[in-house]
């Protein structure tokens, strides 16, 4: 049985038997097939990274310079001018830990939403699983988050941080939540963006709120203090997976730079941080399954829509 993707394009006056199909259909599709074809994934990630810095004088050094300048701007505005950090110890690490997570999420979400439209030439010509493009976007975003992580590790070490297993596990859990959540949303919105380009604008609008909806330029304890008479607000706040991931990464790095880590964790982190993090990862994995089903349902008509 032929699918819409296999139906030939009909051109007036041309013999139908000489026309090629619109796109060759891949024998298998889905996220599992993407990782079976890891060589294609590696090629796509490598070419995307190289194209970003092609023709630039500083090349990959921009990966360090841009996040460092972004961090300086946030730090100057919110710490120096506004004094948002207050009496928090090592507010700079608190801030950069949030920046790393927010950057990883927004790059994955925004780039993943546009990934199918941006790669229309490859999708039409090659029989590859179309999930390849959102996955590659997530990996490219992770790759470009590495310089920010290095900056955070170096700055934390200067301020007295030393690796501890619980903290590193917390940070890994936070990054896992963002990777799964970002990929899930990229799958959902990338195929929707093929049908209606408005979804690309929707993602840009949504990600503008991310910076202010996570405990980055302010501590989580401030949310509890401002809404102490209605404590359920803090619980609703923590339903945001990105906020949970930020807190986990702060547990991994910022807490260890404090002179009294236990007191800082008790004051600025929720007591059930670990259980919430594990539950959030499970929810994000369930969302990834639903996103794959949604993508599989709509991706057959992607070539003709492009």
Average predicted local confidence, pLDDT: 82
**Outline:** globular
Structural class: mainly alpha
Please give the oligomerization state of what you see.
single chain
For the largest beta-sheet, the strand count, sense and barrel status come to: none
Output the radius of gyration. Answer: 22 Å
Secondary structure tally, helices: 14
Strand content: under 5%
What is the β-strand count?
0
Q: Note the gap between the termini.
A: 23 Å
SSE string: HHHHHHHHHHHHHH
Low-confidence stretches: 1-28
The share of residues in helices is 55-70%
In total, the number of domains comes to 1
Structure description:
Helix 3 crosses helix 6 and helix 11 crosses helix 13 (273-298). With 306 residues, this protein is mainly α. The chain is 68% helix and 0% strand. It is built from 14 helices and no strands. It has one domain (28-305).
Note the main attributes of this structure:
306 residues; 68% helix; 0% strand; globular
Topology:
Layout: H1 31-36, H2 38-52, H3 62-81, H4 91-118, H5 120-125, H6 132-158, H7 165-195, H8 198-208, H9 220-226, H10 232-237, H11 241-252, H12 261-268, H13 273-298, H14 302-305
Helix pairs in contact: 2-6, 3-4, 3-6, 4-6, 4-7, 4-8, 4-11, 6-7, 7-8, 7-11, 7-13, 11-13
Gist?
The protein is mostly helical and 306 residues long.
């Amino acid at each position: 049985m032929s699918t819409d993707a296999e139906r030939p394009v009909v051109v007036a006056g041309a013999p139908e038997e000489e026309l090629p199909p619109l796109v060759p259909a891949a024998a298998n599709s889905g996220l599992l097939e993407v990782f079976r074809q890891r060589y294609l994934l590696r090629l796509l990630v490598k070419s995307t990274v190289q194209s970003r810095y092609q023709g630039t004088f500083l090349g990959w050094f921009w990966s360090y310079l841009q996040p460092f300048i972004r961090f300086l701007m946030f730090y100057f505005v919110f710490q120096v001018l506004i004094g948002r950090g207050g009496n928090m110890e090592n507010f700079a690490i608190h801030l950069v830990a949030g920046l790393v997570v927010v950057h990883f999420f927004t790059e994955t979400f925004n780039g993943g939403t546009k990934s199918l439209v941006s790669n229309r030439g490859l999708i039409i010509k090659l029989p590859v699983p179309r999930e390849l493009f959102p996955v590659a976007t997530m990996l490219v975003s992770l790759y470009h988050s590495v310089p920010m992580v290095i900056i955070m590790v170096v700055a934390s070490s200067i301020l007295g941080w030393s690796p501890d297993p619980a903290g590193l596990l917390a940070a890994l859990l936070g990054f896992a939540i963002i990777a799964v959540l970002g990929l899930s949303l990229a799958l959902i919105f990338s195929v929707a963006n093929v049908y209606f380009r408005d979804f690309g604008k929707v993602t840009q609008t949504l990600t503008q709120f991310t910076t202010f909806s996570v405990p980055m330029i302010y501590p989580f304890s401030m949310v509890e203090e401002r809404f102490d008479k209605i404590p359920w607000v803090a619980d609703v706040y923590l339903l945001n997976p990105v906020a949970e991931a930020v807190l986990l990464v702060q547990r991994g790095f910022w807490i260890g730079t404090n002179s009294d880590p236990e007191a800082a964790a008790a004051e600025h982190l929720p007591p059930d941080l670990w259980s919430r993090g594990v539950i959030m990862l499970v929810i994000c994995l369930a969302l990834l399954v639903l996103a794959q089903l949604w993508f599989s349902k709509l991706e057959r008509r992607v070539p003709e829509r492009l």
